[in-house]
Amino acid sequence: NQYHIQQHHQQQQQQQQQQQQQQQQQQQIQQEQHQIHQRIQQEQQHQIQQQIQQEQQQQMQQKIQQQQMQQQEQQNQLQQQQIQQQQQQIQQQQIQQQQQLQQQHFQQQQQFQQQQQIQQQQLQQQQQLQQQKQQQQQHAARQNQLPSP
């Protein structure tokens, strides 16, 4: 009987050990699954972070492009302003040239008028001289015609 009891007891111990081993195996499997799950989560998080970084970088690039476009527009406006200023300067120069030409023309007219006046004065002087000569001749002739005393 004692032998049977011992055998029975041994069998129980063996069963307990087997159960313990199974439990340990299950725990190991659970741990491994948990680790795998953690890895997957970590990878997913890493991917999400990368996506966020990429999006941020894209946004930054877009901003930089917008700024460059704005700068180009400003430069274009400046160039247009410069061109307008140049055109204005050219117009002003043309106006000044026209004014100078007009002044020269006016001066020439004045000189011409002055020359005409001088010529008229000279003519008048010549006429006066001729009149004086005629008067002197007439006077001399009259004196010649007078009867001598």
**Count of alpha and pi helical runs:** 1
State which percent range the strand residues make up.
Answer: under 5%
Secondary structural class: mainly alpha
Indicate the radius of gyration in whole angstroms. 64 Å
Number of strand elements = 0
Sequence of secondary-structure elements: H
Give the N-terminus to C-terminus distance in angstroms.
223 Å
Uncertain runs with pLDDT below 50, 5 residues or more? none
Major sheet description:
none
Mean of residue pLDDT values:
93
User: Into which percent range does the helicity of residues fall?
Assistant: over 70%
Q: Could you say which overall geometry the principal axes of the C-alpha atoms support?
A: rod-shaped
Coiled coil: 5-146
Keywords: Coiled coil
In short:
Keywords: Coiled coil. The protein has 149 residues and is mainly α.
What would your notes on this structure say?
Residues 5-146 form a coiled coil. Keywords: Coiled coil. The chain is an all-alpha fold. The chain has a domain at 79-107. It has one helix at 2-145. The protein is rod-shaped, with a radius of gyration of 64 Å. The relative contact order is 0.02. The mean pLDDT is 93.
What tags apply to this protein structure?
149 residues; mainly alpha; 1 helix
SSE blueprint and pairings:
Blueprint: H1 2-145
